[in-house]
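In this section we walk through a basic example: taking a raw amino acid sequence and producing a predicted 3D structure, encoded as C-alpha cells. The instruction is simple. Fold the sequence below.
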Amino acid sequence: MPLIPTVIVVAAVATMIALGIWQLDRKGEKEALIASAQQAAAMSSEVDYPADPAERDELLYRRTTVACEQVESMTSIAGRSADGRNGVAQRATCRLADGSPALVDIGFSRDPTPIAWDGGEISGVIAPGGRIVATKPAAGLEPLLQPDPASLPNNHLAYAGQWFFFALTALVIYFLALRRRSTRARAD
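The resulting C-alpha cell sequence is shown next.
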C-alpha cells in the first residue's frame, strides 16, 4: 500500500466526513432559525424600523410602518404577486424621517417600468435584506407575495448526504486503484 497516496485519500475522506457532520449541525441551526422566524411572523405587534442595518436581521418578518419622506429612486426587480403570478416588485429607495435609508417594495406589476411614486406612509413586513414589503400596495399596483419564513431553504441534509457520498466514492475509487495495482504487480 503506497504511503503518500493513502495519507492523501485518508485526509480527503476525513475532511469530507467532517464537512458532512458540519452540514448536519447546520441543519439543526437552520431549523431553529426558521422556527424563530415563524414566531416573529406570527406576532401582530409592530416594531420600529431600525436605522442600523445590523439590527434589522433581528426583526425579520416583523410588521413595521415607516414614513417615506423622500423617494430617492424607483426601480423594479423580479417579484411575485400575492396570488403567485410572476412579474416585478416596484421598489423605492426612501429617505426616512430620521435620515436613514430604506428599501420598500411598494407593490406588484407586470410592467417592469418603474412607476412614479411620491412616498408616504407604508406598512409592511421586514424581509431578508432589510427591505420592507408593503402589506397594502401603492395606488395602481397589486399586492406582493408576503415574505414567508417557511420559504427559507434548508438543504443541509442533502448537502451532508453529498459529502458522505463523496467520501464513500473516494474510498471505492482508491480501493479499486489498489486492487488494480495489486493485480498488475502479480502479473509481472
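Looking at the output, two observations stand out. The two ends are 17 Å apart (CA to CA). Strands lie at 63-80, 86-96, 101-109, 120-126, 132-134. In the next section we compare this with other chains.
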